[in-house]
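Pipeline run #58 for the internal structure catalog. This entry was flagged by the ingest filter as a single-chain record with no existing model, so it goes straight to prediction. Upstream metadata was stripped on purpose; only the residue string is passed forward. Reviewer on rotation: M.T. Logging verbosity set to normal.
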Amino acid sequence: MAKDIKYLELLSRSFPTIQAASSEIINLEAILNLPKGTEHFVTDLHGEYEAFQHVLRNASGVIKRKVDELFGPQLREQEKRDLCALIYYPERKLNLLHRKEKKLDEWYMVTLVNLVKVLEVVASKYTRSKVRKALPGEYSYIIEELIHESLSDNNKHEYISSILKTIISTGSADSFICAIANVIQRLTIDQLHVLGDIYDRGPGAHLIMDLLCGYHHVDFQWGNHDIIWMGAAAGSAPCMANVVRISLRYANLETLEDGYGINLLPLATFAMETYGDDPCTCFTPKIDPASGKFTPKQASLIAQMHKAISIIQFKLEGEVIKRRKEFGMADRNLLEKINLEHGTVEVGGKWYQLKDTNFPTVDPQHPYKLTQEEKEVVSKLMSNFTGNAKLDKHIRCLYSKGSLYLVQNSNLLFHASMPLNEDGTFREITVLGKKYKGKALFDKVDELARTAFYEEKDMKLKEYALDFMWYLWCGPYAPPFDKNKMATFERYFIAEKETHKETLGYYSQYKDRADICEMILAEFGLKGEHTHIINGHVPVKTKKGESPIKAGGRLLVIDGGFSKAYQSETGIAGYTLIYNSYGLLLAQHEPFKSVEKAVKDGVDIKSLTRVVESVNKRTKVGDTDIGTELKSQIRDLKQLLAAYKAGIVFEKNK
């Protein structure tokens, strides 16, 4: 009881009177009855900044649907497209209109009225307080007046009309339009969930991170491509080598050099000296010849650098595999299986001809030993990663707003997989000599990922955690990966496709089983009809008829190919999942044309939306996890109210 009174005394500092406590109870009770905010789920962005930021700006097509519903036949189709483009890209659209619009003041008046109508609709499900917090300070009062009054009200018509005319006459219309457009975007997506793999392949991962680190409400569930960047920033050499290799494989130098200022000159110098006479055909980067992005000479240098860092990577990984036998990855040490005399390599007990037999830095007696020159390259690259202010900011954002998994509003979110046995039971994984499975495994993995970056005292533990970050990238039972192998060596050096096959863990085989999905959900405390697992990681081959909806709706796999590298096999350009007060909607997107076409012609991403699950009764804030917290706060406030009235706690400031 004394402890309860102490807590109530502390609470009374925030609510010092009966009136203050009563008012907060009334406020919180009212919030419980508002519709839940809209959650958006995206995954496997892979550096595709332009397409991703457009999906955020148009809220997966939600803004276009609201404009269609709001204006219907009142506006022509082109007018509605132009209005949407203005909401998505206000600055660019205004620049274009200034050049071609002759009656600008008339256009401003009509457009401001239409924008305010859209804002009224998207703001209607939130409290005035929440809307106010989303407004820019300089226009907060004016926007509040506009969205809470109506031009159709005869008593306020001249008042509202005067506000709009003054905005135009003072030359504030452009900045005011930009402010309203940004608020519409913000309120349309209440919370954003990013289910991993922001990095690699595409050129704009750093731009995506800039956007997301400043986003109003975002969380991350780490994918294996994020984890190698996290590991590299924490000091893992094999993670760093993988990051550089993948960037060179896709000729994606923008993120490394322009985004983070990583100096690749030492690697380039070493590669030219070591592989100058080597065509490095197996390491030709994945470049569209029609793009004209690189000259043949530049492409040749990238191939040499690509080979140089790949051999370094295999050596660094080999050392980890040897010292961490518990990872069970001895079959991945293939440099020692090479027979240079015959130009062959043994994989899985079978010998294969090598496509490339030039290994000038590999000592057959000590295949995983770095040469002095390779050590210097690794050292210089590592200092670029670990001493990088911008990368450090982005990685800290991934840690502070992210985790391996998230349980929220009856949904379990994780990037890839839950390790399972052949019979569908949870697989035990040994970590630091102790076995973990299910939720306990996920919690331990999350803990070790943080240890790798933040530990400063126990260096032995930190070294293990750094090695474990590499395991999370490509380990056979690592939750963010969960395949029998990552066949990097085989894809480079062996022609036979049979060696390239990467077999997914048993989770992929059981993902259509509702009982298995329900077992996993129950492990995380989720039971009932409207509970779901949401994943990414494995692209859904839509053009082959595969559905992202598994196990009767229990599991949703929303990797539809944001990355251009996957679109040839998926047939689309990504999925996003929308969870609003009416249920779950899956948006299937076609490839994004360009920002220029969106601004100039109003060309939006074509999105096909289908209902995954609808609810009979509209979901309110009180039905969500936030609602549970608010109800707890209400109970505490009611106790404080009773304590005031009983004289157990005394009112203050009277």
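catalog note: The CA atoms of residues 162 and 303 lie 65 Å apart.
catalog note: The longest helix spans residues 296-323.
status: ready for reviewer M.T.
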